[in-house]
Amino acid sequence: MVARVSTVAFQGIEGVPVDVQVMVAPGKVGMQIVGLPDKAVAESRERVQAALHASGLSLPAKKVTVNLAPADLPKEGSHFDLPIALGLMAALGAIPGDALDGYVVIGELNLDGTIAAVSGALPAAIGANGLGKGLICPSDSSAEAAWAGSEIDILAPRSLIALANHFRGTQVLSRPEPAVRASPANMPDLADIKGQESAKRALEVAAAGNHNLLMVGPPGSGKSMLAARLPSILPPLSPPELLEVSMIHSIAGQLAGGKLSDRRPFRTPHHSATMAAMIGGGLRAKPGEASLAHNGVLFLDEFPEFTPQVLDALRQPLETAECIIARANHRVTYPAAIQLVAAMNPCRCGMAGEPGHSCARGPRCVSDYQGRISGPLMDRIDIRIDVPSVTAADLIRPAPAEPSAAVARRVARARDIQMDRFIAFGMPHILSNARCSTAMIEKMAEPDAGGLQLLRDAAEKMKFSARGYHRVLKVARTLADLDEKMTVGRIHLAEAISYRIAGERLTAAA
Ligand SMILES: Nc1ncnc2c1ncn2[C@@H]1O[C@H](COP(=O)(O)OP(=O)(O)O)[C@@H](O)[C@H]1O
Ligand SMILES: [Mg+2]
Known about the structure:
The protein has 3 domains: 2-179, Ribosomal Protein S5, domain 2; 210-230 and 238-398, Rossmann fold; 407-505, no CATH class. 39% of the residues lie in helices and 17% in strands. By secondary structure, the chain is of the alpha/beta class. The chain contains 21 helices and 20 strands. The radius of gyration is 27 Å and the shape is elongated. A 5-stranded parallel β-sheet has the order 13-16-19-11-20. Strands 1-2-4-3 form a 4-stranded mixed β-sheet. Bound molecules: adenosine-5'-diphosphate and magnesium ion. Adenosine-5'-diphosphate binds at residues 193-196, 217, 219-225, 343, 390.
């Protein structure tokens, strides 16, 4: 007899249905798993046998064949243990054959028969719900699975015995509750930053329009400090955004305690990050930092210290909002709509451009260092600013600074204006100016006569690329939105162009 159990294989953030077929028949004693399993799946055999034994169920002296269908779909991960064990239990009559019919099953087994947490419980639950089925998952993964919907039937046992007892009716498993992660109470606040008014303004504009930002300045001028305060002024995630972000974090096994939060991701990979760590991939395909920052911020401190190949690999997610990882026999895609925020010193010694300082290595100190950032990557950064050292006057007797909450209100207002406009244009899925298509931004950010003249002159003089031209328009649109103005005026374009020119100077120096 063949017992069948439904489970999933993860491709990107989607759970693709997989059918686990278990047959116990006379023949050479042993257990074999077929159907393109990777190493972790092949090792299931040992864990399943030990866990069943520990639960008081010994395998008969027969041949056990486990097939994971469709056979040509690669299977990665350890979450196939539980469906295989349950299939075997059904084949041996230890649980009723039809008990598993309405469920998708995922879970890893410990040798003592307890069930260990796995990644991907949330996408698995959403997939199961789509098929009209319930989910059997480890108790420790159940809090995130519960987010898939209140109507979905979830069984979250701690051990094989607890599940068998549930099916026998001697012990009832209760439904898990979705958990919310409380926002950290003491987030760093903009009010801590003395002076640096123009840098704070740029941070606000970047937050309001979801624009990429580069800060250049000497060590200790407060670049890292400014970036760390960006989360405190960003608007919370909308429910659909929240779900997408959580699915990625679930696949990566990074939802601590299965708790979801509506705070935007803020990822700060170290500059030693490898390609696999940044874009995704590795031995078992996992989302990288760029995908973990989906719908949030990817902050790269000490920008030129990153490997040039890793930086250039970011060009694709910056353009298409997804990371594509090529594997031996298939491709995996993870969403990666990121806001790139970067900080760097102007040169290796860090002091180029500071009054009274001259680099020991001369102008090459600047050009070598900044040349590590490729032109095409620089072209994708909308707002580039110089962050000079804080003046002594600002440090000693600072004017009272505005708290993050006040800035966050203006940012939220500007985002609302953008969303209303995108809805009016029939594109409700676009949420910020930075994500708008070039054709649309030309319509939405038509400058007045004065602005047009300024833009024409600047584009000619500074030799903007086509991408640069559109990015200036997008930033100008955001500036007008912050101003609550319908039309993009000369003043907005002037500010947007100034953010671009800081970078043109950088590229010219390089
Ligand atoms: N504008 C500022 N207001 C208050 N403190 C500052 C400011 N700029 C720098 N600091 C102080 O200097 C330290 C270093 O700042 P940091 O952000 O790490 O500099 P950077 O990243 O530019 O090298 C901060 O921890 C803070 O104590
Ligand atoms: Mg720093």
